[in-house]
Design goal:
The protein is of the alpha/beta class and 124 residues long. 44% of the residues lie in helices and 23% in strands. It has a single domain, classed as Rossmann fold (3-Layer(aba) Sandwich), CATH 3.40.50.720.
Length: 124
């Protein structure tokens, strides 16, 4: 059984994460989210023969029932809120660094992880 991955943030780092997901036979990239729809489509079309769907709303991405893990690769101001929402929705999260712009933001995500029992990992 593969882990179903959703990517939120289709910039340069998000693209690298998407390619890594596609190269690992244990994972499937199911969803790509970006506020610039063409950028999300571009990454989804690069996926090795898989049909990743695209959305422009991060809330839709974190609430998707066909996603087990959310990779959050957005601007720094959105890393903690999106990570916390994904954890609260029952998803494991890989959040790009920094986990938050300050301790308060980082705590938002770590508290959500503790309460949900899901894994929160800060990527580097």
């Amino acid at each position: 059984m593969s882990l179903r991955v959703g990517l939120v943030g289709a910039g340069g780092v998000g693209r690298k994460r998407a390619l890594a997901v596609c190269q690992d036979e244990r994972t499937d990239l199911c969803l790509v989210c970006d506020t610039i729809e063409d950028r999300a489509r571009e990454i989804a079309s690069e996926v090795d023969g898989q049909a990743a769907r695209t959305v422009v709303n991060w809330q839709t991405a974190v609430e998707a029932t066909d996603v087990d893990v959310v990779i959050v690769s957005t601007t720094h101001d959105m890393l903690a809120p999106i990570s916390a929402a994904a954890l609260q929705a029952g998803k494991h999260v890989l959040c790009e660094k920094p986990l938050g712009r300050n301790a308060t933001e980082a705590k938002q995500a770590t508290v959500a992880a503790a309460e949900s029992g899901k894994v929160l990992h800060a990527g580097y």
